[in-house]
Amino acid sequence: MGLNFKQAFSYEWNDSDFFTKWLIGSFILVFPALPEWMTGIKKFLIAPGNMYWLLLFITISIIAYLAIIGYFYKAVHNRIVHSEEQLPQWQKFWLYVRRGARACLGAGLMTLPYFVLFGGTVYLYQLDYTSPIFIAIAVILGMAFLALYLVFSLNFAVKMKLSAFLNYERAFRRLEGRWREFFVFYLVCITLAVVSTIVCALLSLHNLTTLIVPFFMFYICLVLADLYSQFLFD
Q1: Which residues have C-beta within 8 Å of that of residue 101, sequence separation ≥ 6?
Q2: Which residue, 66, 85, 146, 174, is most buried by CB atoms nearer than 10 A?
Q3: What is the pTM of this model?
């Protein structure tokens, strides 16, 4: 498999409404970041007696993140299942929220047994979680779990059903004879995540450049959607 990185970073511009769709998604991500930009809002939210406002802010922020997740999966699903090259419209906002919630719930159900197993082992054997050996093992297991999550995430992008995160047979069937390609795809996704995190950290060093972060992150979300589509197409 050969991932086309130029396509991943440029295909979005083929959509005549790309700029509008990108701005809408970016401004949705702006809302959760407002307290970091405006100290007055942050002080207001954490002030005693403003718990209901804080809960409202948290609720709206969660809805915003779910909408972005749902939009991401819808973008992949449309290209794979419906052969639509254009990015989804934002008119179906609450559909994206529901799809995002479904994806998060599925991921949570998939994660639960592994979390219980790992946490239970640490508790029962009183493992020293500060030791270098434990940290190294935890990092290796974490990387392995991310690969597992990616398998089910690809399956969900096609099926858009909660069961996609629980159906091991169908999820791994997509990788038959393609383990080398999947490993490359996995490394690309990890690298993109790490580089994006570093860029966001650098942008966050100054209040003015912090404003760019949501716009950058939503663009990376669209890039990742194309990488998903490329892998699933092959």
Answers
A1: 66, 70
A2: 66
A3: 0.91
